[in-house]
Amino acid sequence: VQFETLVQSADVLIENFSPRVMENFGYTPEALHRVNERLHITSLSAFGQTGHYRDYIGYGPTLESFGGIASVTGYGETPWLPGFSVSDFGAGIHGAAATMFALYGQKTHGAVKRIDVSQYEVAVNLLANALYEKVNKQRRRLQPAPFKFQFSAPFIVGREQAPALRSRRKM
Fold it and tell me: Cβ distance 130 to 140 under 8 Å?
């Protein structure tokens, strides 16, 4: 009853249980929106609110191993876990930003009522730079020529297309 009193006056509810916990308490999104229709619910569960792994419980070491963070930390080829839970911090930052944008979006576009942040997906997202570096190192070993970027806008522009673009401009 005290929880429902808090929900009545809240703008945001942030929880990090596995999906079945809030349901077992009887606090489904529909039930919470009956108490407060303008409530934004942000869930920070291990594997998200939907999908095959939704009911698995995960903690920092599990998520960092499963998400691949352990493969880019450590020394040499032996994977090590970081000294703190990177995925927890990352999910908190992503969840806070998404909640902030939802509150802003409510004022400008209407309602965003449910935000689902998967800590596993955040862990994978944090690997983007490391993955890019690894692919570039492998590419450099396979191809001695320097990597050429091609930018795509309305059309692809590269060094090979530059003379053709100059001739089009003269027309």
Answer: no
28, 37, 102, 103 from 31: Cα distances, Å:
5, 10, 20, 20
Lowest mean pLDDT, pick from 9-23, 33-47, 63-77, 100-114: 63-77
The answer for residues whose C-beta is within 8 angstroms of residue 16's C-beta and 6 or more apart is 43, 44, 45, 91
Determine which one of 11, 55, 88, 116 is catalytic.
88
Q: At what angle do helices 86-108 and 60-67 cross, to 10 degrees?
A: 90
The predicted structure's pLDDT at residue 135:
73
Q: What is the pLDDT of residue 96?
A: 95
Alpha helices, H only, 109-170? 119-125, 128-142, 162-170
Angular region, 15: left φ>0, alpha ψ -120 to 50, beta rest: beta
Strand 156-157 and strand 151-152: the pairing is antiparallel
116: annotated active-site residue:
no
pLDDT per residue as tens digits for the range 57-93: 888 888 888 888 887 777 777 777 777 888 888 899 9
Tell the burial category of 16 from Cβ atoms under 10 Å away from its Cβ (0-12, 13-18, 19+): middle
